[in-house]
Amino acid sequence: MALDGTPLDLCISDDASALFAQSDVVIDFTAPKASLTHARLAATHKTPLVVGSTGFDPDQQAAMDQATAYIALLQAANFSLGVNLLHSLVRQAAQALGPEFDIEILEMHHRHKADAPSGTALALGEAAASGRGIDLASHSDRVRDGITGPRTEGHIGFATLRGGDVAGEHAVLFAGAGERITLSHQASDRMVFARGAVKAALWLVGKKAGQYDMMDVLGLKA
Ligand SMILES: NC(=O)C1=CN([C@@H]2O[C@H](COP(=O)(O)OP(=O)(O)OC[C@H]3O[C@@H](n4cnc5c(N)ncnc54)[C@H](OP(=O)(O)O)[C@@H]3O)[C@@H](O)[C@H]2O)C=CC1
Ligand SMILES: O=C(O)C1=N[C@H](C(=O)O)C[C@H](O)C1
Asked: Choosing from 113, 139, 155, 207, which is the catalytic residue?
């Protein structure tokens, strides 16, 4: 029942298997281990699945990828229009500016966030690395502490802030000699993620098994 008394027609249950069996599509924003369980249930019931959870380690992500042989799986670290557009802008800037510009990615989230750097920061890192033509895993500095020495040339740096109720802020800095460009996005309301996820779920129904992301939904694929 909504606050104004309107019936919501929602069913709340702890039977995930029944949920997957009876749904046209499922949206999951939980945590990596739970999302893996849900991907297995989705594969069993052939139910399309939208996943927003972040913080998967490489083995967990590989297991998620395997599910795409059986179901339409749409996974995205960020369901806002702005961040998905930012991916394209970052790739373009990284390519145009070249290696004389150092790339640093800064993110801030609310005090409850479990994973760092955020999934969005890592995805923006992937976009920058692809614009640069480098592999992110072997060209990133995710933590700096103590006598670190000079910046490692060509690496992409990450910095993480946590506090309060910040919905999600990301900035990608391109720092060169005598000038700096910053591309940034601020989410001021977590509803942008919820609305994006519902849009993605409606888009995913009826799609063949495979891997999809928010760029597919928004028509932003290069
Ligand atoms: N892609 C995007 O656009 C966005 C992604 N996220 C990501 O979504 C995830 C959740 O974030 P957030 O909502 O802030 O986190 P919360 O901790 O507020 O919510 C997580 C929810 O998942 C539930 N949950 C955890 N494990 C299970 C399980 N095994 N079975 C069923 N439910 C489970 C929790 O239930 P309980 O409370 O009972 O433990 C809780 O309700 C994070 O990984 C976050 O980074 C968040 C916002 C946007
Ligand atoms: O945990 C959050 O809140 C968010 N998580 C996602 C991430 O890790 O990038 C997306 C958004 O920034 C909010």
From this structure: 113
Q: What confidence tens digit (pLDDT) does each residue in 19-50 have?
A: 999 999 999 999 999 999 999 999 999 999 99
pTM above 0.90, yes or no: yes
Confirm or reject: Cβ of 84 under 6 Å from ligand 2.
Answer: no
**Pairing relation of β-strands 102-109 and 140-141?**
unpaired
Annotated binding residue 54: yes
ipTM surpasses 0.95 = yes
CATH topology of domain 81-187: Dihydrodipicolinate Reductase; domain 2 (3.30.360)
The pLDDT value given to residue 1: 76
**Amino acid at position 107, single letter:** E
From ligand 1's centre to the CA of 113, what distance in Å? Answer: 10
Domain boundaries, the chain: 19-75+191-218, 81-187
Residue 76, annotated as binding a ligand: yes
Positive or negative torsion for Cα 142, 147, 151, 152: negative
